[in-house]
Amino acid sequence: MKKTLSLSLIFLLLIFSAASHAQIGGKSTYKFLSLPSSPRIVSMGGDFLSIKDADINLALSNPSLIVPELNNQLTLNFVDYFSDINYGFISYGRSFEKLGSFVGSVQYIDYGRFTYANDAGETAGNFKAGETALIIGWGRQLDSTFSIGANFKTIFSAFESYNSFGLAVDVAGTYQNEHGFAASLLARNIGTQIITYDNGSREPLPFDLQIGMSKKLKHIPFRYSILLTNLHKWDLTYDDPTKLKTDPFTGEKIKEDKFMDFLDKTFRHVIVGVEFIPTRNFSVRLGYDYRQRQELKVDSKLSTVGLSWGFGFRISKFQFNYARKAYHLAGSPNFISISTNLSDFL
Q: How confident is the model at residue 6 (pLDDT cuts 50, 70, 90)?
């Protein structure tokens, strides 16, 4: 009875969230909450995973992966982003027999230092800008196959003298069977601004409704992952001013191929990734994000925009992960993490 009630509440929240949110792109605030921080997630192309193997780095984006095995795990994640921007998170796990398992996290982004100038161009010192979220994640295993979880977020944002405060929650459910298959349903960043910038109007949060699937092959050391994102909004395309709408020779309007247009809109929701695991202490990963490539590629130059790769290895009591993702010809950020279980030192 309790399991049925819990699952019903989760799916009611997911349906309500999908019906009441429809924004994307630059129409929301606190966008740092959607930035991928874990190298393992980034190297497989997305911003979350459905892999349930007691990796604390995955818990921040998918709270239904919070399990008792995360007890006393600690992880530090850092991203050397573009220009002077950097961001990351720190997480620590703790489990209690009756209450469930918890992961506490601090997620931040530092936009760097800026020069203050008035309308006349006169400078008057420097200021910094940044955002922080304090997050408590909870997860519980309902039975041998189903688990649920939620993240509760308090969000602080400061841009010079403009400040904002907000609250948000993620809800998720994961199914896993004995054959290595796992699937997650996730609704992220359901919430609101409590204090707005300069007492202005409230801005929506970067809500996303997602489904993730992963499968570890039985006789080959491979795992594949398929992510479906932004399921609350079908058309993720935009009006591209560089796209030819009329034939330059005849002046006639170019007819769109409806089938190819349908495929383009479909695959903008899909992210694929693979993980090669030759030993328990070493793995190599690769991912591809079709939508990112379509939005950021430069047609006149060959590039790897949309592709990501990385690896992970264990040395003694520490797990190291590294990833690199080609966002644009302008550069590719580096993603680094180090994790350990503090119980190993006792």
A: very low
